[in-house]
Design brief:
mainly alpha; DNA polymerase, domain 1; 5 helices
Length: 64
């Protein structure tokens, strides 16, 4: 997850914490959401970040 976040941050020219904080990444791994609705239950994932990163996150989480 951190590798994905770092790559995404570089692509957008922002610090990694702007994409997601470490606590959110840990929650994503712990909860392992498998749908966009489940992603919204993770603290730090709102509608804007769901639209921006949701599909990528689901792909990563479903393939690990």
């Amino acid at each position: 997850m951190r590798d994905w976040r770092a790559k995404t941050a570089r692509e957008h020219g922002v610090p990694a914490y702007v994409i997601f904080h470490d606590t959110t990444l840990k929650e994503l791994v712990r909860l392992n959401p498998q749908s966009r609705d489940e992603l919204l239950r993770v603290a730090g994932v709102g509608a804007h970040k769901l639209d921006k990163y949701g599909d990528q996150l689901i792909e990563i989480l479903c393939n690990t």
